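Supplementary Text 2. Reproducibility record for the structural model of the 79-residue chain.

All settings were left at their defaults, and a single model was retained for analysis rather than an ensemble. We include the record here because the model underlies the residue-level annotations in Supplementary Table 4.
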Amino acid sequence: MKKNKAENDLLTSIEDLRKEMSKVKSRFDMETDECLIESYIYQMEALNKKYQYFLKQAKKTGVKANVFEGGCELCSRLL
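Retained model, structure tokens:
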């Protein structure tokens, strides 16, 4: 039972990060101010680091889900 909760928490964290990355990408795409554009780039880099951490945790524990496919596409397009 404990393992299922940990797996669900991990998957939830990954999905939350994907949603946040999408929001930041949308803001980045619409922004014209140079300072704010730079801040969105930094936010995306930070989110990507968290995302990579959670993916490593998932791999270590054997958690798999469709949620992972193409997850960093947003990052690679931005950075």
